[in-house]
Amino acid sequence: MSALLSEPTVSAPEQRTPAPLRRRRARRGPARWIVLAAAAVFALLMLAPLLLLVLNAFKTGADYSAHGPLALPRHLSIEAFQQYLEIVDYPRALVNSVVISGLVAILGTALALITAYGIGIGRIRGRGLLLAVFLLATMLPQESLIYPLFYGAQATGLFNTVWSVVIVFTVLQAAFGTYLLSSVMSTIPESLLEAAALDGAGRFRILWSVVFPVLRPTLSVLVVFFFVWTWNEFYIPLVLLTDQSAQTVPIALATLQGQNSINLTALNAGSLLSLLPTLVFFLIFQRTLSRGVTAGAVK
């Protein structure tokens, strides 16, 4: 009786688990902790620039000059944010960036869906050549495009308006989206499309009721990527949007750089304010992005 009472009790799940598997899990215990520690160190290294940005944004100019960028602030101050907002019309630049990035994300994805539908589903002639052209358009440097874009914007009266940037980036982003979506559409079973056609569905009905639901996860990923890519664009908006009322957040941030000096604390504060909208956007659409990325693997 005493021997039976002294035996360790084993829970029902552990009893159902084979002994070799339990021993293997026990051996993998230290390895998991090592991997977790390495991941934590890597995460800290990735977050180090962001932490420095936050620390220097809440320093005064005298504190930064006396103790350098790596020291903790002697006291938290919003002086740098006040200086940045005095120099830059941040609310107007924020609205311009949101409008431009949002329109490009929606219009670029819609245009890519329509053009990819004709290439991937319609099986038009010269499909491979067209995809090569779209791929080439995504590889061209912006410096090679700026000359015709500048004079084209002046000739059409769109210079210094957000529509000049919206049209340019809608076409450029749609080129990449067309290349991606056409490859995905080519994998849709033809039997599914033929069944919809036999039921009397036209081309637009097939696109909306059959193709669009299948591609919805991929389209959501494109919307997120197009928004962030357009938000971070600098060179083309710098040339086409010379008026301060039409400038975006990255261009407004560049105005802090003077000819002989740079207000580093205000630059850190402006960089933090420029980063916050995209960070909030990623947090809002994080689940949508993760579902879209893993949708192809799950199917």
CATH topology of the domain at 88-255: MetI-like fold
The number of helical runs is 15
> Largest sheet at a glance?
none
Please report the distance between the alpha carbons of the first and last residues.
56 Å
Q: What is the average of the pLDDT values?
A: 83
Structural class: mainly alpha
Instruction: Give the second-level CATH assignment, the architecture of the domain at 88-255.
Output: Orthogonal Bundle
Q: What is the CATH homologous superfamily assignment of the domain at 88-255?
A: MetI-like
Write the element-wise H/E pattern from the N-terminal end onward. HHHHHHHHHHHHHHH
Given as residue ranges, the uncertain stretches (5+ residues, pLDDT < 50) are 1-8
Instruction: Give the percentage of residues in beta strands.
Output: under 5%
The CATH first-level class of the domain at 88-255 comes to Mainly Alpha
Estimated helix fraction: over 70%
Radius of gyration of CA atoms, rounded to a whole number: 27 Å
Structure described in brief:
The chain has 299 residues and is mostly helical.
